[in-house]
């Protein structure tokens, strides 16, 4: 690939830190394939983190930070049909990251980012086939209205509904993927 071993090792270590690959002693790393339970547990924890960060954002966010969150929502709304699935997904993640940063809790924002990174693949795969444009845009808009009004109940209600769909989509995707996978013979090692 034209790179030395040091940056390759660093890249592999970073992928392992993000839970995307599994390192094995004296063997090549393999792509992580989390179980439905592992992914659901991580998604549910991300949901708790996001709900708490949104509550803190209602208390701590500056008007400029709320305007930034709103501008992301408006950009997504305006460009939704023109974006490819990955760009649309990245804007959605930017929206959620901006709320976590607006919480003004560095540890929370860092943990939020780590879980977003860890769940990127399964989250993207579970979202790309769904036709949820109107619901997602409506919920994002209502979350912004709640932030602007510092209305924790509105933000929590909309975000809870939004993230419950996300958790259910991940579970449904992984269960479908699991059932579609061909059975592998058991190893006798």
How far the N terminus sits from the C terminus, by CA atoms, comes to: 33 Å
The CATH topology annotation reads as: Four Helix Bundle (Hemerythrin (Met), subunit A)
- When the domains are counted, the total is 1
Low-confidence stretches: 184-189
Strand content: under 5%
Would you identify the CATH architecture? Answer: Up-down Bundle
What is the element string, with H for helices and E for strands? Answer: HEEHHHHHHH
Walkthrough of the structure:
There is one protein chain. With 189 residues, the protein is mainly alpha-helical. It has a single domain, classed as Up-down Bundle (Four Helix Bundle (Hemerythrin (Met), subunit A)), CATH 1.20.120. 74% of the residues lie in helices and 5% in strands. A hairpin with a 2-residue loop joins strand 1 and strand 2 (27-31). The radius of gyration is 19 Å and the shape is globular.
Could you give a short description of this structure?
The protein has 189 residues and is mostly helical.
Could you list some keywords that capture this structure?
single chain; 189 residues; mainly alpha; Four Helix Bundle (Hemerythrin (Met), subunit A); two-stranded antiparallel ribbon; 8 helices; 2 strands; 74% helix; globular; disordered C terminus
């Amino acid at each position: 690939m034209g790179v030395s071993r040091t940056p390759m090792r660093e890249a592999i270590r970073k992928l392992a830190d993000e839970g995307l690959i599994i390192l094995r002693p004296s063997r090549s790393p393999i792509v992580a394939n989390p179980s439905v339970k592992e992914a659901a547990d991580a998604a549910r924890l991300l949901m708790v983190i996001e709900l708490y960060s949104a509550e803190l954002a209602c208390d701590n966010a500056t008007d400029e930070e709320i305007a930034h969150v709103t501008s992301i929502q408006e950009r997504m709304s305006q460009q939704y049909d023109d974006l490819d699935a990955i760009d649309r997904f990245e804007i959605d993640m930017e929206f959620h990251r901006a709320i976590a940063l607006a919480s003004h809790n560095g540890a929370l924002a860092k943990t939020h980012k780590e879980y977003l990174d860890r769940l990127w693949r399964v989250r993207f795969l579970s979202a790309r086939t769904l036709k949820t444009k109107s619901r997602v845009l409506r919920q994002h808009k209502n979350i912004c209205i709640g932030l602007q009004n510092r209305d924790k109940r509105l933000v929590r209600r909309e975000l809870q509904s939004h993230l419950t769909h996300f958790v259910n989509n991940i579970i449904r995707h992984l269960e479908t993927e699991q059932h579609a996978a061909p059975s592998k013979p058991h190893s006798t090692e």
